[in-house]
Each structure stands twice: as C-alpha cells, then as structure tokens.
Specification:
There is one protein chain. By secondary structure, the chain is mainly α. It has one domain. Helices cover about 85% and strands about 0% of the residues. It has three helices and no strands. It has helices at about 5-30, 35-60, 65-95. Helix 1 runs antiparallel to helix 2, helix 1 runs parallel beside helix 3 (about 65-95) and helix 2 packs antiparallel against helix 3 (about 65-95). The longest helix is centred in the C-terminal third of the chain and has 33 residues, at about 65-95. It is elongated. Keywords: Membrane, Transmembrane, Transmembrane helix. It comes from Chryseobacterium shandongense. This is DUF202 domain-containing protein.
Length: about 100
C-alpha cells in the first residue's frame, strides 16, 4: 500500500493555517460570539494539528505496523477536520445569503 503520510502532513498543515485564519478574522471583527463558526474552526484546528503530529510520526516510524497505525489515525483526524471546515463554510454561506 502506498504511504499517504506526506500528503496528509502537507494538506493538514495548510488547512491548519486556513482554520487559524478563520479564527483570527472572527476575533478581529468581533463576530465570534454570534456564530458557532469559531467553535467549528477551533475543533478543526485541533484535529489538523493532531493529524500533522500523527502523520509526522508515521513518516518517522521505523516499524511498518506502527507507521500504518499512525497513518490511519492521521487519516481519520484529517477527515474529521475536513467535516468541521465544511460545517464552517456552510455557516458562512448561510450568514452571507
């Protein structure tokens, strides 16, 4: 099976920055108290950060089985964080419309 850890690490770190940008912009505009957007973005930040951590561990692991386990954890965390980002985008879209 092809290793996905490097791709997960790259995408997670980029989307972690995007999530932090959402939170920062909400704090600057003082809109964080009126929506659940910052909560979803905060959860996504945590999931992306842990996804980065586990994908890094999968890359650095010397044991194949342990590396696959770390990669699987990183993959599920990444998917959960993407779900949170999608919810945040839906909230932004509903607020704009």
């Amino acid at each position: 099976m092809e290793k996905k850890s490097t791709h997960i690490l790259n995408a997670s770190s980029n989307l972690l920055g995007f999530s932090l940008l959402i939170i920062t912009s909400l704090k600057i505009t003082k809109m964080s108290h009126s929506t659940y957007l910052d909560e979803f973005a905060g959860i996504a930040c945590l999931f992306f950060a842990f996804s980065c951590f586990f994908s890094f561990l999968a890359i650095r692991s010397r044991h194949e089985k342990r590396g696959q386990r770390f990669e699987t954890i990183a993959d599920y965390l990444f998917l959960s964080a993407l779900f949170c980002i999608v919810l945040a985008v839906i909230i932004v879209t509903m607020k704009i419309i």
